Amino acid sequence: MPPPPRLARAALSNVPTSRSSTRNGASTPSRTAPAGKAAARATPARKTAAASSRAAVTGTATIQRAIQRAQTARDARAGAAPKKPVQAGARRQPETPLPNRRLAKPGLERSMALRPRYDAPDYAGSHKLGGMAALVTGGDSGIGRSVAVLFAREGADVAIVYLDEHQDAEDTRRAVEAEGQRCVLIPGDVRKPAFCRRAVEKTVKAFGRLDVLVNNAAFQSHAEDITDITEQQLDMTLRTNVHGYFHMVQAALPHLPRGGSILNTGSTTGLRGSKQLLDYSATKGAIHAFTKALASNLLPRGIRVNAVAPGPVWTPLNPADKKPSDVRKFGKDTDMGRPAQPEELAPAYVFLAAPACAGYITGIVLPVTGSVGAI
């Protein structure tokens, strides 16, 4: 079978051309065209193609460099202008610079020059937690206070565990009762297992039940170097932030019904660390792991376990621990360029606590950080 026309032509094109003649019946040797002459004949076309290719590459590179120069100019202009804080919520929130009045530890909310916003006036309850009872540690101020108020707005009675900030705790009690729900104040130290058991018993005695446990109490203290962290500080941080969570869960578990939930307050420092909060970051990372492990452990009992990982939030914890210069710019390094107010965090706790909203969610760490992405 003869080869296809194209293949035949291709094959023939590789055969040197020759001319032969017969003179007086004798054949004359064929003469093959030298390879150099063939190459010479092809050179102009090749040069034209190469020139066109180089021109195309040069043109593309020129366009890319122009785009790059334009973007560099835009970046320079953007860098010269101060970054404006982002306001994307229901109402405008305070921005940096923030008041830098130093507070004595653990910090009273009523002593702050700029009090944290906790009441979320634009948040309307819809009975998501109707008939339930919740216990919130560290509920006297900050995130805990806002969680307690929004839980009450959703129909739950709330027990508040706090250390010794009695004035702040009374303010929270009045705010919860203003929502039409009952509130019990339970002062004490979550580092002590016996107190945790008493706190749960008082809650159950007051409300007849316990449906939601919110582990929120925490201790932090900045240190420039790991060698600056004393054994006393390390013990305080670990026992408050880790042992306290374990103790409260152990005490609450016998009373939590199927459909109940446990919420732990983690932190962005547990996601990416903080060079001046080494021990605190370690405990928050432990809380995230504890949340996931406990969720698996309690799943057969129908009890959900989740965590919220806040970014910078304006609470008494910060002016009581940070240097005044750091307090003024607190939260400025987030993508939104400002710290959150507690009322911007509390709806996440409502969502995770409500069976109607998060009945199919367990073992997650929900970042609420004011920045793009989880980490």
TrEMBL record:
Chain intervals for the UniProt region annotation (Disordered): 1-111
Q: Which UniProt keywords apply?
A: Oxidoreductase
Q: Name one Pfam family in it.
A: adh_short_C2
Q: Do you know which InterPro entries this protein is assigned to?
A: NAD(P)-bd_dom_sf (IPR036291), Sc_DH/Rdtase_CS (IPR020904), SDR_fam (IPR002347)
**Has UniProt tagged this entry with the keyword ATP-binding?**
no
Composition bias of kind Low complexity appears in 31-71
Q: Which GO terms describe its molecular function?
A: oxidoreductase activity, acting on CH-OH group of donors
Where is the sequence biased in composition, kind Polar residues? 14-30
**Belongs to which family?**
Belongs to the short-chain dehydrogenases/reductases (SDR) family.
Protein name as annotated: NAD(P)-dependent dehydrogenase (Short-subunit alcohol dehydrogenase family)
